[in-house]
Amino acid sequence: MGFVVFESNKLVSRFTKRFFDLLLSTIGLVVSAPVWAVIAVCIKLDDRGPVFYTQVRLCRWEKVFRVYKFRSMVTGAEQGSGPVWASANDSRVTRIGKLLRATGADELPQLFNIFRGDMSFVGPRPERPELVDIFSQKIRNYNQRFSVQPGLTGLAQVYGRYDSSPRQKLCYDLLYIRRRSLWLDLKLISVSFWITFRGKWESRLRKF
Q: Per the CB 3.0–4.6 Å rule, which of 3, 4, 30, 86 could disulfide with 90?
């Protein structure tokens, strides 16, 4: 009987989280539409390149999906180099891209990923398949982070530094998976808005 109740609670929690994601992403897409238009114009004026950038990532159970972003780097930034993390003062980041990355505005198109169900508002960041192959071989229990949907924000994104190691970020991800709740999600989303307001998403130090 206890197991049945536990499974029932998990289903209710998952349904509540999905309903919350669907509601909030719908509101976000409508409210942020004017901001999308301004960002698109700024990107075009900056270097005339494409407005959007897509990338293959892994979601729950390591399923492949395509994540959407506003382009913040020069076109073809990884041609010839393969997947490379952005570094401090990265020359590949455009002028408007620096502002987009600092405020997290480059992630706005992921509201569409959340609406579709590829992502949640809160969870481990979706990672690239090439990097997952490397990390899963070097870091114990790394694949456990794929037991939940990836998120736009989360413990690792908020409390970890931009240049925190994959192992450190995994500790935050696994802690979130163990303690996840609607209340924790609301708290992390609120803190994320504050980090956005302060333009601290790219900070190598504490974000808030």
A: 86
Name the token pair of 52: 């959007």
- pTM recorded for the entire structure: 0.89
Q: How far apart are CA 61 and CA 31, in angstroms?
A: 32
Are the C-beta atoms of 29 and 112 separated by less than 8 Å? yes
DSSP string, the chain: -HHHHHHHHHHHHHHHHHHHHHHHHHHHHHHTHHHHHHHHHHHHHHHS--SEEEEEEE-GGG-EEEEEEE--B-TTTTTTT-S----TT-TTB-HHHHHHHHHTGGGTTHHHHHHHTS-EEESSPPB-HHHHHHHHHHSTTGGGGGGS--EEE-HHHHHS-TT--HHHHHHHHHHHHHH--HHHHHHHHHHHHHHHHHT-TT-SS---
Predicted confidence (pLDDT) per residue in 98-125, tens digit: 999 999 999 999 999 999 999 999 999 9
Spatial distance between the Cα atoms of 113 and 184, rounded to a whole number of angstroms = 21
- For 149-186, the pLDDT digits (tens) are 999 999 999 999 878 899 999 999 999 999 999 999 99
